[in-house]
From TrEMBL, chain A:
Gene3D superfamilies: Zinc/RING finger domain, C3HC4 (zinc finger). This is E3 ubiquitin-protein ligase MARCHF5. CDD domains: RING_CH-C4HC3_MARCH5. Residues 317-326 have a biased composition (Polar residues). Residues 22-91 form the RING-CH-type domain. One of its GO terms (molecular function) is zinc ion binding. Coiled coil: none annotated. It catalyses: S-ubiquitinyl-[E2 ubiquitin-conjugating enzyme]-L-cysteine + [acceptor protein]-L-lysine = [E2 ubiquitin-conjugating enzyme]-L-cysteine + N(6)-ubiquitinyl-[acceptor protein]-L-lysine. It is a multi-pass membrane protein. Residues 295-326 are annotated as: Disordered. Its EC number is 2.3.2.27. Pfam families: RINGv (PF12906). The chain crosses the membrane at residues 115-135, 155-172, 193-209, 229-250.
TrEMBL record, chain B:
It comes from Laodelphax striatellus (Small brown planthopper). Its EC number is 2.3.2.23. It holds the Pfam family UQ_con. InterPro entries: UBA, UBA-like_sf, UBC, UBCD4_UBA, UBQ-conjugating_AS, UBQ-conjugating_enzyme/RWD. This is E2 ubiquitin-conjugating enzyme. Belongs to the ubiquitin-conjugating enzyme family.
Length: 326, 200
């Protein structure tokens, strides 16, 4: 107010600049596409935030495109003005109760689906286990006997007991009894003459060919990794293998279950012995390995290329090596 | 349609940059490279009271189809020694050219921001780690090196006979000049260490 009442000359100046500002502000510029009102008379404008000046006005369409870009597909995401940080207020038209209901259903289905999928997977595994259990019982006991047995037993027991069969088989397969036996043999082999006879190479080793490696516990066991697929296959095929072994070795036993049990025990024992023997031989091979001195390749007159140094643990190398040390 | 928005907007921005005061003061300039407004050439004058003073820095500006919803892709064509600009590729580390871009920004504001970046480096958010380390450890060495690069590549004033001599020593050994300059700059103009690095 004081401007208008004080001197004469400044008044006109002030008014002029104010007019300038106003006309400048009134002419709308879209801060996205930079078009002015003159470029497109029909476009709808919005003033979505606290900004003034050149970023005050924006086309409705341009701002929606910017919001889309910021939301990146998340339709309910919040977007703020990059300059003044005020959040844009986005309203949706009321599309009636049906759309609200459909939205809600959509949302529920979206959230429930992962759980249902997980349930289906677990259920499938369960029923596979039940079926496997039933097949195994029939295999071991015999078809008719198994049918009679399953008719008599409470169905609840069957639903728990049958899937327990593959689980018990897998858990049993994971028990590595061969390791324990091998450790026991290594510890007591010197005292039992029979073992000395069965595993002569081991005793030789124990007698001190390799002084550094005399204590067995220092050497990491070979093939320590348990393969999951191997455990699975071994466990699930075991009843079949037991049945076959029973038929081969104990054909004269009339009872199905006894024959299969005996077959299974025989198989475990045979396989255990072979495995222990294999592990022991691997251990000896590992203990007796040598790394050779480097020798420059000798140019030989024959046309074939000079032989590369043979791998350290080939039998021939072992032989020559032990003969040298002996 | 999207392409149309980008082209239309660049056209309108063009008028703005041409009109602006900075152009009158020869501080920034934008030129068209092709007719469809997708590639532009920018120029920035090195800001005063910096090692870049007197230099003229050329930029490559690529306008994406989604402009102005996504930032333009800008890099330095003129080689420059700066913590936030790669001395090899010219790539720029500046937030508004990445996630802090806003559609209200323009080629003009981008070029002015780059000019501000040249005047005030951010060594804690570096693009070129070697330069940033020198900037933090030895400001004077950084200043001399940046000035030398400005004189060599951006037409800035003043040479550095000592640096020139060291580069010549390396080029006499068969090293390419730019490579020799990068190696020497990276090792604070220690000829021995630069040579070691180049020939190891």
């Amino acid at each position: 107010m004081s401007f208008f009442t004080s001197g004469n000359t400044p008044v006109t100046q002030v008014v002029a600049t104010r007019n300038d500002l106003e006309s400048n502000e009134e002419k709308k510029y879209c801060w996205v596409c930079f078009a002015s009102e003159d470029d497109d008379a029909h476009a709808s404008w919005v003033q979505p935030c606290n900004c003034r000046g050149t970023t005050k006005w924006v086309h409705q369409v341009c701002l929606q495109r910017w919001v889309d870009e910021k939301q990146k597909g998340n339709m309910s995401g919040k977007v703020s003005c990059p300059q003044c940080n005020s959040e844009y207020i986005i309203v949706f038209p009321d599309m009636g109760p049906l759309i609200v209901l459909l939205d809600a259903v959509d949302n529920v289905v979206y959230k429930v689906c992962p759980f249902v999928a997980a349930g289906i997977v677990v259920g499938s595994i369960y029923w596979t286990a039940v079926t496997y259990g039933a097949v195994t019982v029939m295999q071991v006991v015999g078809n008719k006997e198994a049918m009679n047995m399953m008719d008599q037993v409470d169905p609840l027991v069957l639903l728990v007991g049958l899937p327990a069969i593959p689980i018990v088989l897998i858990l049993g397969k994971m028990v590595r009894w061969e390791d324990t036996v091998l450790t026991f043999i290594r510890r007591h082999s010197n005292k039992v003459p029979l073992l000395k006879y069965l595993m002569p190479s081991y005793v030789l080793l124990g007698a001190g060919i390799d002084g550094v490696r005399e204590s067995n516990s220092d050497v990491p066991p070979l093939a320590d990794t348990v393969s999951a697929t191997r455990v699975l296959c071994g466990a699930l095929l075991f009843p079949t293998v037991a049945t076959i072994c029973g038929k081969i070795f104990f054909d004269n036993i009339p009872s199905n279950i006894q024959r299969t049990l005996l077959g299974g025990i025989t198989f475990i024992a045979l396989k255990g012995c072979l495995k222990i023997y294999h592990m022991q031989q691997q251990f000896i091979r590992q203990s007796k390995r040598r790394i050779l001195d480097y020798t420059p390749p000798v140019v030989q007159p024959d046309p074939t290329p000079a032989p590369t140094p043979t791998p350290v643990n080939t039998p021939t190398q072992d032989l020559t090596d032990s003969s040298q040390t002996a | 349609m999207a392409n149309n928005i980008a082209a239309q907007r660049i056209q309108r921005e063009f008028k703005e940059v041409i009109k602006s005061d900075e152009v009158a003061k020869c501080a920034i300039r934008v030129e068209l490279v092709n007719d469809n407004y997708t590639e532009l050439k920018g120029e920035i004058a090195g800001p005063p009271d910096t090692p870049y003073e007197g230099g003229n820095f050329v930029l490559e500006i690529k306008v994406p189809e989604t402009y102005p919803f996504n930032p333009p892709k800008v890099r330095f064509i003129t080689k420059i020694w700066h913590p936030n600009i790669s001395s090899v590729t010219g790539a720029i580390c500046l937030d508004i050219l990445r996630d802090q871009w806003a559609a209200a920004m323009t080629l003009r504001t981008v070029l002015l921001s780059l000019q501000a970046l040249m005047a005030a480096a951010e060594p804690d958010d570096p693009q070129d780690a070697v330069v940033a380390k020198q900037y933090k450890d030895d400001q004077e060495m950084f200043r001399l090196t940046a000035k030398h690069w400005t004189a060599k590549y951006a037409g800035g004033p003043g040479g550095n006979p000592d640096f020139e001599m060291k580069i010549r020593r390396l080029t006499d050994m068969g090293v390419e000049e730019d490579q020799a300059r990068v190696a020497l700059s990276s090792y604070n103009w220690d000829l021995e260490r630069a040579t070691e690095q180049l020939f190891s």
